[in-house]
Amino acid sequence: xxxxxxxxxxxxxxxxxxxxxxxxxxxxxxxxxxxxxxxxxxxxxxxxxxxxxxxxxxxxxxxxxxxxxxxxxxxxxxxxxxxxxxxxxxxxxxxxxxxxxxxxxxxxxxxxxxxxxxxxxxxxxxxxxxxxxxxxxxxxxxxxxxxxxxxxxxxxxxxxxxxxxxxxxxxxxxxxxxxxxxxxxxxxxxxxxxxxxxxxxxxxxxxxxxxxxxxxxxxxxxxxxxxxxxxxxxxxxxxxxxxxxxxxxxxxxxxxxxxxxxxxxxxxxxxxxxxxxxxxxxxxxxxxxxxxxxxxxxxxxxxxxxxxxxxxxxxxxxxxxxxxxxxxxxxxxxxxxxxxxxxxxxxxxxxxxxxxxxxxxxxxxxxxxxxxxxxxxxxxxxx
Length: 383
Description:
single chain, alpha/beta, Jelly Rolls, Rossmann fold, six-stranded antiparallel β-sheet, five-stranded parallel β-sheet, 9 helices, 15 strands, 23% strand
């Protein structure tokens, strides 16, 4: 009898807890995130394309849907709510076989922790597709209570948006009587954005959640906005994108990492013009050229290794030519341990795990930090 009573009591308590949780979620007030500070955008605060809509006719259709992904973007706000939630409508609700849905179309909540004086991860949303027979537009609204039972004090928060999907709208859920305001903490700082241009790795393939892509890691480490202009499979040094990048205001540095989407011939023919569009328009802005990592399998596949090495050699020769034209504000990151020293940094030999993104960010951090602080640049980044 006692085990049966214990089981019945457990069911009642579980039902009560679930009911309370549902009630608290239902009682939340949802506010439009666009009323608060958007971070890590290039041109204007918007949930739409990461580059100007006016460029649509100049781009391949295959790149345009990637432009609409919200990779790298986020929101900052402050609230005394005891519960923080999110509700948003995905653009496509897509899925891939080598990347977690939490990274593709999830969102992350971070809190500023005064005791550690840094941003700390709280929780992520876990997106669902309810019924594959329903059209994506009708099946894309996601809900998540990130955290409950907070202390009711004013705290600073940050939400990162999906890496491989777009968002039509996003709302932040707080207690019905809570105060939610613009952030008071200047983090990331308003001045001096770092612009990353590249491929699927830059975009975030295959981070387990949005906060673990290298651009977001560096944003937290360096306390500056970092713009993600990575386009999966389409980082092919399009000149119109370089021209658009050159118009971004208040740029501290450009990081150019496109080689994995370019053949040897493309690297040879496109590099000088692409980089020079930036250099001629924004000569005061440092540019960092990043080599293609030697993928884990290519360390043993002699043909793949030779191809990557040739491409990196061409990239380096273009760097030398650019230096001869103008030795100022041009730096170079080679492929040595770019994804880590132990072959554990990728999910499929090329796309990064969270560990790989950490290694990648760690390689770039010292150079970017020196640039931001106007400090001498170490010789390893110069000829």
